[in-house]
Design goal:
The chain has 21 helices and 11 strands. Helices cover about 55% and strands about 10% of the residues.
């Protein structure tokens, strides 16, 4: 555990004692204390039919989240790693209730019994999965839904009332194109509490990227151009860390590709290319063509699993030499963009787990301090508030978050190249020393130390420049402090040996 985590742990314990006369408040604070030791909670949000459940399946590598319009898509559903499969429903009123589950080729099917989806606070799915060990994934109903109740469930989860902390530590937000509803949601989720840092816990995804431009073979290239344009947008830079294109369907299908599906695709790829290109011009042609010797139900299943883009891409790869299901699966996953998303999640969320958890814990205490809780000793409340402020303002990790936010929003007048260097050194691309210093991951400690010392001297000189503005000096000093921390961490083993 980091020093910051232990400091926040101590604050949460003291807060639970200060508000012991209010059992609900004290229990909520103790829940936050337990939450420090849990995996990171990452919510997947977006408008209706943005591909949230499909992307979750792609991240997990199994078909566990229902992707149709069934009941489960209308309930906030948590997916956690556990030794044995289990599903538990949490009604708005009443105790939790275990549910029977059935797994088919399309994923898990859950019967909600007599409680309608609108009266369920959440479902919790326990599932043995390596992918869920570092992150608990939360699938949410679509925002801007025709059902106000469904949208409210998602908004309550991610942007609760002032006296309640958000259930998610971070968010992956899916959008087809940037609409007003998307920007409004990202703005509402942006938290200006601890560290006064915007967008530190949000990543945006151009979802269903394989459908861009009608699912042409260059769809992912077009989606990457769109993502780059969004990343460069000053407005969006203040609302999320980065924007990535992902074809969730391609990822989920690639990770669960079946041999029998490969056999059908290989037969399609063996047909004359001109004929197949004509058949795959549209969904209607593929489903109704009399030139294909493939049963109608098989065509529907293939289209559901691959989409037009996936079918075009699969037949192309088979023609180019993918001789078995394993090779084709690897190509589909590689082309989906899911690997890039997983890497960003690892670098920007998982590696920052302790920081994001600590931030969530302090936000919970801050919210309680803003409310008038009967029975709390005023002097103890004042002392608690001072301790929270001391941690929030003094912890260098939070200083880095504030400055990253300021840089991304353009509040610090840096040139583009210098801003990119500053963001990287402050941990914008990852918190490891090698990522901060743009060194290879396997760089020897001596090289890392030499580079950190050189960067330290560089930013100290800039901080001492009498012509530098106050915001610039603040960033220079923080970057020098970051370099000092890298050097100190590298020298710590030698000092203790």
């Amino acid at each position: 555990m980091t020093v910051l985590t232990e400091a926040v742990r101590g604050v949460l314990r003291r807060a639970a004692q200060v508000y012991a006369a209010a059992p609900d408040v004290a229990d909520s604070l103790r829940d936050q204390l337990d939450r420090l030791d849990e995996p990171l909670r990452v919510a997947i949000a977006g408008k209706v039919k943005a591909g949230k459940s499909t992307l979750l399946n792609g991240l997990v590598g199994e078909l566990i989240a229902p992707t149709d319009a069934g009941e489960c898509t209308r309930v906030v559903t948590w997916y956690r790693d556990a030794p044995n499969p289990r599903v538990v429903s949490y009604p708005d009123d009443g105790p939790p209730e275990p549910l029977a589950i059935h797994r088919s080729a399309e994923g898990l099917a859950v019967r909600l019994r007599d409680v309608p989806a609108e009266r369920l606070r959440k479902l919790v799915v326990d599932w043995p999965s390596q992918s869920l060990r570092d992150m608990t994934l939360i699938d949410t109903p679509g925002i801007a839904s025709t059902s106000a109740a469904n949208s409210r469930r998602t908004l309550n989860l991610l942007t609760p009332d002032e006296d309640q902390p958000a259930d998610a530590d971070a968010v992956v937000y899916l959008m087809r194109h940037l609409h007003v509803a998307d920007a409004e949601f990202l703005e509402s989720f942006r938290d200006r509490g601890v560290a006064r840092a915007n967008a530190v816990n949000t990543i945006a995804v151009v979802s269903r990227a394989d459908e861009v431009g009608g699912g042409r073979i260059d769809a992912m290239l077009s989606a990457r151009r769109i993502a780059r344009r969004y990343r460069a947008s000053p407005a969006l830079r203040g609302l999320c860390q980065t924007v990535l294109p992902v074809a969730g369907l391609l990822a989920a299908t690639g990770k669960t590709l079946r041999q029998q599906e490969y056999a059908v695709l290989a037969a399609l790829a063996a047909a004359p290319r001109d004929e197949m290109d004509d058949v795959l011009l549209s969904t209607a042609r593929f489903l109704r063509s009399e030139r294909l010797r493939v049963p109608a139900d098989v065509r529907h299943a293939l289209l559901s699993r691959f989409g037009l883009y996936g079918l075009r891409l699969s037949t192309m790869h088979i023609r180019q030499g993918c001789g078995d299901a394993t090779a084709l699966a690897a190509e589909l996953v590689r082309g989906s963009g899911i690997a890039e998303l997983c890497e960003v999640l690892r670098v920007r969320f998982t590696e920052r787990r302790d920081l994001l958890k600590a931030r969530t814990g302090l936000l919970a205490v801050e919210r309680v301090l803003r409310t008038d809780v009967p029975g709390a000793d005023p002097d103890s409340v004042v002392a608690l508030a001072a301790e929270v402020e001391r941690i929030a303002s003094g912890a260098h990790e939070f200083v880095e978050l504030r400055l990253l936010s300021a840089l991304r929003c353009g509040e610090v007048p840096f040139e583009t190249a210098e801003a990119e260097v500053a963001e990287r050194l402050l941990g914008g691309d990852g918190v490891s020393a090698t990522r901060r210093l743009a060194l290879p991951a396997d760089a020897p400690a001596s090289a890392v130390r030499a580079e950190a010392v050189a960067e330290l001297a560089r930013w100290r000189r800039r901080a001492e420049n009498p012509f530098a503005s106050r915001p610039e000096v603040r960033v220079y000093q923080a970057m020098a402090r970051t370099c000092e921390g890298i050097v100190a961490a590298l020298e710590a083993p030698a000092l203790t040996s």
